[in-house]
């Protein structure tokens, strides 16, 4: 049973501008019951790879040493770019938030959505 309208529940989890308590979903548009909500997560991140700046500088400095300096151009940097979108839909509302992608953020978004799905079912 949900607490009275004036009752305050502790926030159990937040992601972006979405916060959840045991009985409510809080979004910028208002507060809605969590029971029966549908949660989705969409990973819109991608991995980029480029030659490291240090590798370019070392290649320029050591290019005249038997051309071995060119091996420094094989140094690569990998980084994750993009967004992770989390959406919640319930009776009378729909809200989506996007968080910048990082290895930690992608895993956190999936854990958040799985936790919210458990709350909405129970």
Structure description:
The chain is an alpha+beta fold. It has a domain at 13-49 and 78-121. It contains 2 helices and 7 strands. Strands 1-2-3-4 form a 4-stranded antiparallel beta sheet, covered by helices on one side. A 3-stranded antiparallel beta sheet has the order 5-6-7. The relative contact order is 0.22. The mean pLDDT is 88.
Based on the model shown, name its key terms.
7 strands; 122 residues; 24% helix; alpha+beta
Strand order of the largest sheet: 1-2-3-4
| Alpha-beta classification | alpha+beta
Portion of residues in beta strands equals 35-45%
**What is the tally of helical segments?**
2
Order of helices and strands: EEEEEHEEH
Mean pLDDT: 88
Distance between the termini: 11 Å
Give the radius of gyration.
Answer: 23 Å
Low-confidence stretches: none
Major beta sheet summary: 4 strands, antiparallel
State the share of residues found in helices, binned by percent: 10-25%
- The number of distinct β-strands equals 7
Quick one: overall form?
A: rod-shaped
């Amino acid at each position: 049973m949900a607490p009275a309208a004036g009752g305050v529940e502790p926030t159990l989890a937040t992601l972006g501008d979405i916060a959840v308590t045991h009985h409510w979903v809080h979004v910028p548009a208002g507060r809605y019951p969590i029971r029966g909500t549908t949660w989705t997560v969409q990973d819109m991140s991608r991995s980029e790879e480029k030659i490291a700046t240090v590798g370019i500088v070392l290649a320029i400095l050591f290019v005249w040493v038997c051309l071995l300096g060119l091996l420094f151009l094989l140094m690569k940097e990998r980084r994750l770019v993009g967004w992770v979108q989390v959406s919640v839909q319930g009776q009378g509302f729909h809200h989506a938030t996007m968080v910048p992608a990082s290895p930690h953020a992608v895993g956190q978004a999936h854990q958040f959505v799985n936790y919210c799905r458990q709350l909405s079912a129970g």
